[in-house]
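Same chain as my last thread, 359 residues:
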Amino acid sequence: MPRTSVCLIWLMLCLPTWAQPRITLDATGDTEYASIAEALLFADSLNRPAVVRIGPGTLFERDIVFDPSAPISSVAEITILGTPPGLTIIDGSGAPGTFLSIRRSAAVVELRDLVVQNYAAGSGAQSVLDIGPANSVLLEDIVIHDIAPGFGGADSAVTAVRIGNTALQPLFANCRVVVEGSGPAIDVNRVFLSNSLIAANDIALESLATAAGINSTIVGRITGVQVGFHSYQNCVLSRVPEVNAVVSRCVLPSEPAPPVFATDNTIIGDPLFVAAAQGDFRLSPGSPAIDAADLSALDTGNGFIGSFLDANDDFRLIDDPATPDTGTGERAFLDIGAFEYQPVDCRGDVNLDGAVTDS
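reply #2:
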């Protein structure tokens, strides 16, 4: 088990289950706030960027609204951080409601290191994260799960993330978004996915313009308007996209046909998830996605595209000794999809010198 995982487990065992997470605002130092909304409202009164830090624990909060008609209306930069990573949970109590709604064209939104869970839809459509218009949106190490239809009946559908028009392409980096109900996991105008899992019972990704993904796993339908364009590299796709798309070094369930075009190195077959029915989309032994990716996805120099951590924050470039290296690049053992297979004999290029480290 990685050392970081051991430390996180120790912290969770030591943390009282009743503890209210400590909420602070960078602009006011150690001053604590009762809720995220209260911290944002105070930042708004100062007319300063809002950097909200939430400590370990579970915070029960819903319906934070940030638009020109709301009390929180003037702050342009909104950053919400969980500290330390992986231990901050935002819980919707299973009731209808939105976690965060931001509708300001100048807004720069960054959410990092949060687990968002237990939200449900009321009557009609509902979004857990509802952002846009905005200037830019970054979600990094965000987990959204336990999202269900709730109390609205047959017409009730909940979308995990809805992002409207943005000046810059929204980025999902090392995220896991899973919707158990009937709504889409992500409904966007455009998006870039890096090392992320997007999963839904029906529509996983709906894009009105463009979408791109590198080293991601998308379980469910990929839909949108036909004038849009999608591209996927090193991705596991459970369904052939229903839009104009180019796929390269991806695992698909069947041969694509126009308007989807696949390069010669596309793999047709079962990715062999560990337990898809239980929501475990890691790779099991013998998966054709193991050691089969294109290393150029990590060598582009882009900080997020080139991430050396997968959606579980496990190290990339782990060479499975039982699987031939069929990938491309100097280190031809990068895995396809959001999760790097972690064999018992877990060897990798730890020092990034181009060779597998012995120990």
